[in-house]
Specification:
Elements (H helix, E strand, L loop, with lengths): L1 H24 L9 H21 L5 H21 L11 H21 L9 H4 L8 H17 L4 H13 L3 H15 L3 H14 L7 H12 L4 H13 L3 H14 L5 H15 L14 E8 L12 E8 L8 E6 L5 E6 L15 E9 L11 E9 L6 E5 L1 E2 L2
Parallel strand pairs: 1-7
Antiparallel strand pairs: 1-4, 2-3, 2-5, 5-6, 6-8
Length: about 400
């Protein structure tokens, strides 16, 4: 790539010289100035008029002599100031100077201000590794950020970034600590309160009771139309068994979401569930009779597309309606192949668990980002329909790629 750049730069320099040098090399031809000829013609015409006026007696001899003298004087002045112009030839030494100096100065400025390595940038120069950064690379960056925060403990934005990074890595207790520091610095601001509450819930197996709920509803009191607060508040009420309060929050949320969007449809599906079951069981009274055993493995042809540290989500889903998992287990690729049992205890909310459905869909997804929603490039396997009452072990092979 470097040689092509140099050739292109040289070509541009040659073009610039071809534009600049020819006018300097050529001597401009001497141009006759016709101003003198015009002045002389005017003077002759005026003299003829004076002679004619003298002959017919219109102009006295004294006036004639005076005006002729003035005319001759003016003509002499015009001829003195209207000498033919000759273009001074530019010194050809300037041509040779530019021929040497222009390329030399351009190369010198680029050497001083440019960056030759940018012609073949390394991953470090681009700010990322070639391709997608590995989990080890991300962990190193997070470790550097953590060290920086130890040296700058008053950087609230840095603590928030660190908390999000730990959450991405599924290191929820560390995420809680980071968000706690940010919360102490920022105070009761809805954004940090909701991040803190969410991390606390993740660290407590998804349960929002206690401090997470307190933070959520305090944020909701400050921003009644906050989308995240309404969602989490509804989840907290649903987990507490208060179906009416959950439905009230989700109705408001559905009205704020874009009509027909996937998010609105999911909220409306949850509303349908809680509105049809006004008496939700509390977490303590939740039944755990329903259970599905599934063996999960990764197809051999996809082994090279996954890393040992990639997250594996194994979950059951309703055949229709909301896509929220009815039961979910989180593992890593290093754990495969493995066998897990999905139960009501692994539900994200009491109203949406295995016991509420006769048949479910089983899925296993490998996520490189660890995101809860499927993204392009994730690896996926599924069994379209499984009776919840079926006590046999089901075999699920991850053999597809999310487009």
């Amino acid at each position: 790539m470097t040689i092509y750049f140099l050739l292109f730069a040289g070509l541009l320099a040659v073009i610039a010289l071809l534009i600049i040098l020819p006018p300097l090399w050529r001597q401009a031809p001497i141009e006759d100035d016709d101003t003198a000829r015009r002045n002389l013609a005017i003077a002759r015409q005026r003299l003829a008029e004076l002679n004619e006026q003298l002959q017919v007696g219109v102009l006295p001899q004294a006036d004639y002599d005076s005006q002729r003298a003035e005319l001759e004087l003016a003509l002499n002045d015009d001829l003195a100031t209207s000498q033919p112009r000759t273009a001074k030839p530019a010194g050809r030494w300037l041509v040779y100077l530019l021929l040497i100096a222009l390329p030399a100065v351009s190369a010198g400025l680029y050497a001083l201000l440019g960056n030759f390595q940018a012609l073949d940038p390394t991953p470090e120069m681009l700010g990322t590794q070639a391709g997608t950064p590995s989990l080890a690379d991300i962990e190193k960056m997070v470790a550097k950020l953590a060290a920086r925060m130890e040296a700058n403990p008053d950087d609230a934005e840095g603590w928030m970034m660190l908390g999000k990074s730990y959450k991405y890595l599924h290191q929820y207790p560390k995420a809680v600590d980071a968000f706690k520091e940010a919360y102490h610095l920022l105070g009761d601001k809805p954004d940090i309160m909701l991040l803190y509450a969410d991390a606390l819930a993740y660290a407590n197996n998804g349960q929002l009771a206690g401090q997470p709920a307190e933070l959520i509803f305090k944020a909701l009191s400050l921003e009644p139309d906050n989308i995240s607060a309404l969602w989490l508040g509804g989840m907290a009420k649903a987990q507490a068994g208060d179906a009416e309060a959950a439905a009230q929050l989700w109705r408001k949320l559905a009205g704020l979401l874009p009509p027909g969007s996937q998010e609105q449809q999911e909220v409306q599906g949850l509303l349908a569930k809680v509105e049809n079951r006004p008496e939700l069981p509390t977490p303590q009274a939740q039944k755990t009779d329903a259970a599905i055993t599934v063996s999960v493995s990764l197809a051999p042809e996809l082994q090279n597309k996954a890393q040992a540290s990639d997250t594996v989500f194994i979950y059951a889903q309703a055949l229709s309606g909301p896509k929220m998992p009815l039961a979910i287990v989180r593992k890593t690729v290093a754990d495969l192949p493995l066998t897990v049992t999905l139960t009501d205890a692994q539900a994200m909310m009491p109203a949406m668990n295995l016991s509420k459905f006769a048949e479910v869909k089983l899925l296993a997804r490998i996520s490189k980002s660890g995101a809860a929603t499927a993204q392009a490039g994730d690896l996926l396997g599924s069994i379209e329909s499984v009776p919840v009452a079926d006590q046999t072990r089901h075999t699920l092979i991850i053999n597809g790629v999310v487009k």
